[in-house]
C-alpha cells in the first residue's frame, strides 16, 4: 500500500521530474511505458497524455470504463488550473485542515483533486501539459505516474537536447 506523501515530498517530486523537452514521440514513449507497467500489474486503468491542450496519447486497458475517462478529465483540469499535481493540490488543502471540495469553489463535476494527474514541466518553459492515470486508488494512480516519469526521465527515451 502506498502512503500519503507530504506537501514537501510532492513539491520535490515535481521539481525532480522536470524534463528537458517533451515531443510527440516522447508522449508515445511515456504512454507506452505506462501501458506496459499497467499490463504487467493487470491494472484496469485509462492513461492520458496532453501537451498544450492537445491529447497526444490515450489508452484504456482491460477493466477500465468510461468513468476512468471522466476521472482523467476532472484530475487533469486541476493540473491545468493550478500547475501542480492533482495530489499536491489536495495535500495543500489537507495541510490547511480542509479539503479541495470544501474550499476551492469549483464544481466537483469538473475538478477532482485526487492523485493521478501530474504536470509535464519542461526546463525553461514551465508546465506544458499533463500525464494522467485513472482506475486505481488515488495514491496508486499518482505513484504509477511518478514511477513512469522517473523511468522515462532516466531512459534512452528521453535524450537530452531539443
Which helices and strands appear, and what pairs or packs with what?
Layout: H1 7-16, H2 24-41, E1 46-51, E2 54-60, H3 66-82, H4 86-95, H5 100-103, E3 117-122, E4 126-134, H6 138-154
Give a written overview of the molecule.
With 162 residues, the protein is α+β, with helices and mostly antiparallel strands. The protein has one domain: 2-Layer Sandwich (Beta-Lactamase), CATH 3.30.450. Helices cover 47% and strands 17% of the residues. It has 6 helices and 4 strands; from the N terminus they run ααββαααββα. The protein has helices spanning 7-16, 24-41, 66-82, 86-95, 100-103, 138-154, and strands at residues 46-51, 54-60, 117-122, 126-134. A 4-stranded antiparallel beta sheet has the order 2-1-4-3. Strand 3 (117-122) and strand 4 (126-134) form a beta hairpin. Helix 2 crosses helix 6. The N and C termini lie far apart (38 Å).
- CATH topology annotation: Beta-Lactamase
How large is the share of residues in beta strands?
15-25%
Q: Which range best describes the helical content: under 10%, 10-25%, 25-40%, 40-55%, 55-70% or over 70%?
A: 40-55%
Q: What distance lies between the first and last C-alpha atoms, to the nearest angstrom?
A: 38 Å
Backbone CA Rg = 15 Å
- State the helix count: 6
Order of helices and strands: HHEEHHHEEH
List the strand order in the largest sheet: 2-1-4-3
CATH architecture: 2-Layer Sandwich
Q: Give the class-level CATH name.
A: Alpha Beta
Average pLDDT works out at 94
Say how many strands there are: 4
Main β sheet profile: 4 strands, antiparallel
Structural class: alpha+beta
Amino acid at each position: 500500500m502506498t502512503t500519503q506523501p507530504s506537501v514537501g515530498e510532492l513539491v520535490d517530486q515535481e521539481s525532480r521530474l522536470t524534463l528537458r523537452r517533451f515531443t510527440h514521440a516522447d508522449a508515445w514513449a511515456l504512454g507506452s511505458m505506462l501501458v506496459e507497467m499497467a499490463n504487467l500489474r493487470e491494472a484496469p486503468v485509462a492513461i492520458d497524455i496532453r501537451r498544450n491542450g492537445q491529447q497526444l496519447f490515450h489508452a484504456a486497458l482491460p477493466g477500465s470504463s468510461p468513468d476512468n475517462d471522466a476521472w482523467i478529465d476532472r484530475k487533469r483540469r486541476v493540473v491545468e488550473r493550478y500547475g501542480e499535481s492533482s495530489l499536491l493540490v489536495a495535500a495543500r488543502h489537507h495541510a490547511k485542515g480542509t479539503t479541495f471540495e470544501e474550499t476551492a469553489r469549483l464544481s466537483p463535476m469538473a475538478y477532482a483533486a485526487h492523485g493521478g494527474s501530474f504536470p509535464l514541466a519542461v526546463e525553461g518553459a514551465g508546465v506544458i501539459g499533463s500525464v494522467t492515470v485513472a482506475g486505481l486508488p488515488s495514491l496508486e494512480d499518482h505513484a504509477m505516474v511518478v514511477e513512469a516519469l522517473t523511468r522515462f526521465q532516466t531512459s534512452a527515451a528521453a535524450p537530452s537536447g531539443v
